[in-house]
Hints:
By secondary structure, the protein is α+β, with helices and mostly antiparallel strands. The chain is built from four helices and six strands, in the order ααβαββαβββ.
Amino acid sequence: xxxxxxxxxxxxxxxSQSGQAPMASMFNSARYMSSKLFVGGxxxxxxxxxxxxxxxxxxxxxxxxxxxxxxxxxxRGFGFVNFASEDAANSALTAMDGxxxxxxxxxxxxxxxxxxxxxxxxxxxxxxxxxx
Length: 132
């Protein structure tokens, strides 16, 4: 509900000032309204606990998860860090983006929800007889 109130106030404020909706301002404000961060460029040696340790200096980390490949069991090179507060997430984002972690320069951004269907990787195989 707070998100919708913030968006509404930004739209009202921008329309009253310029006659147009302030899209860039609205998206930048919405971008920092999350306590879940995406962390990319992770070393394959980074695990959940080392990811949590790296970010715990910025606030209470409720969860840190390195995404693993289900076939190989190896890290996919990215993960997510959840903070108890948005302020802690914002300070971690500002401080950690572009920094080095386990020998790799990491990218930190606000996590976004995946939209649309998940991609299918069946190689185009449709099964059955090919008709030849």
